[in-house]
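Re-running Ribonuclease H-like domain-containing protein to confirm reproducibility after the cluster update. Everything else is unchanged from the original entry.
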Amino acid sequence: MFSVKVLSENMFQSIFNPSDIINICTDDLLTSCFNTELNTFIKHIGIGWVILNNKDEVIVECSSSIKDWSSFTCVELGAILSVMLILQTGQIVNIFTDSQAAIDSINYIKINLVNGKNKVQTWYKSNNYSIISSIINLIDSKYLKIKLVKVKGHSGVKGNEEADRVAKNGTERLTCITINDSQQKDLKYDLYWNSKRVDRIIRKFIDNLCKSALDASWSLNCIYRTIF
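Result of re-run:
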């Protein structure tokens, strides 16, 4: 059995042929621990995926940690992205996930691009666009044949339960997934705020930012402070 510490694309090629149809189960886990030094709760996010053989035995597993990724959908997309990184060119893969939102996010972008919708509007009107862009970029550049399948989480499905176990290990790993701008599809520019990529619908983010600034200004106004 291979783990994230030793698994590489070359090792993956030694186990599977490009013509093999592979079933991969992904999962994620978010935990919070109180940091006494910082006097605050710190999020620990782990992702994991496994490949089972015909006897439902784990033959390959991978886990990693993620930081600064804000939602469960975002984290599940990160798990799917980690799968894409290791697959070889032309691979046929069924990816089983318990996140319908992650599946819908990827399919929404792919359908709009295939139908010739405006690329700028398609990408920047979507949440988690940088991760989805990296996923689609890997699918296209590696000529992957990917099918996303929804499974019910924590329902006793062998692959999902094993992926959950691996994801728990990922919360403590130092290995983290990051996305470089050059790894994305179609996107020439990214919006950053406080040195962090804004992976949200741009217009909605700016509206919320302006509203927060107005709310803060109103609450700090000395006239209103004396009233309330």
